[in-house]
Write a structure and sequence with these properties.
316 residues, mainly alpha, MetI-like fold, 2 domains
Length: 316
């Protein structure tokens, strides 16, 4: 198991190095000059040149890449071209909103999907199965931003149970902050819950048809006992994969929901940085998201071994 962990850690490190190189090069070939954009159309050329020198944009490409990577290793993401503050401060402020929102949405998605998928698999071809699959098909088809606006109309404008947008900050208290994140989390969670429920149902149905399930039933276990003790654990492998992918998607892909609810999260930060040509912010946020995706993938792979002992023996 130790050798496997070392191999996975090496793979993670190499993937992160390759991703940092690709991200840096892609940002470099983007047309336009950040210094000219910051100074404006009628800026003095000498002032633009001075600003490029100050920002280090005239340094050789390899030197800029190595300087950027060295800063990342020390926790220094550079200074924002637009806001003139450390990028790490901008990211820490936005992560404090985006990460709890992601975890909240993922928890809701899992709590909805697991019972729905298990019910649909246990009652295959019944009215319950058809109802669950119809609801999940609807959840997949409806865009989350449209559903978010419906939530605002019903629960914020008509019922006035929640605010229509904004974030009071964690200093206002835990429950006011969670309440402000509830509608965005629901809007993000329901489409993901629909996907996860369908995967859970499909994986469980495949597992219920295996020989070891028939053996468990022959030993006297009821269908429900065999499902809980044997089928559920063996069906978790594809489900864990989807959960890992959903975490990455929710963390990086909540830009539309954040704009609908006026949440100052990572998604809005990237959007604003792109419109303002603040490439250092874009680079830093993207590499942070890539790092999060790689780490989550690594943790999901470890969860495979915990869920299926056969994988541990195979790796050993």
């Amino acid at each position: 198991m130790t050798a496997y962990l070392l191999r996975r850690f090496l793979s993670l490190s190499l993937s992160l190095v390759a991703a940092s190189l690709v991200i840096f090069l892609v940002m470099e070939v983007v047309p336009g000059d950040p210094a000219s954009f910051m100074m404006g159309i009628n800026a003095d050329p000498a002032a633009v040149v001075a600003l490029r020198t100050q920002l280090g944009l005239d340094d050789p490409l390899p030197l800029r890449y190595l300087s950027w990577v060295a800063g990342l290793l020390q926790g220094d993401f550079g200074v924002s071209y637009t806001y003139r503050v450390p990028v790490s401060e901008l990211i820490s402020e936005r992560v404090a909103i985006s990460l709890p929102l992601t975890l909240y949405a993922l928890a809701l998605s899992t709590l909805i999907a697991f019972p729905a998928g298990i019910l649909a698999a246990a009652k295959r071809n019944s009215a319950a199965d058809v109802s669950v699959m119809g609801a999940t098909q609807l959840g997949v088809a409806i865009p989350n931003f449209w559903f978010a606006m419906i939530l605002v109309l019903v629960f914020a404008i008509n019922l006035r149970w929640f605010s229509a947008g904004g974030f009071p900050g964690w200093e206002a208290g835990f429950w006011p902050a969670i309440k402000a994140l509830t509608l965005p989390a629901i809007a993000l969670a329901l489409p993901q819950a629909s996907i996860l429920a369908r995967v859970m149902r499909s994986s469980l149905i495949d597992t219920l048809d295996e020989d070891f399930m028939r053996t468990a039933r022959a030993k006297g276990l009821s269908r429900g006992q065999a499902l809980r003790r044997h089928a559920l654990r063996n069906a978790l492998i594809p489900v864990l994969t989807i959960i890992g992918l959903q975490f990455s998607f929710l963390l990086a892909g909540g830009i539309i929901i954040e704009n609908v609810f006026y949440l100052p999260g990572l998604g809005r930060l990237v959007f604003q940085a792109i419109t303002q040509r603040d490439l250092i912010v874009v680079r830093s946020v993207v590499i942070l998201l890539v790092f999060a995706v790689i780490v989550v993938t690594f943790l999901v792979d470890l969860a495979y071994a915990a869920a299926d002992p056969r994988l541990r023996r195979r790796r050993a």
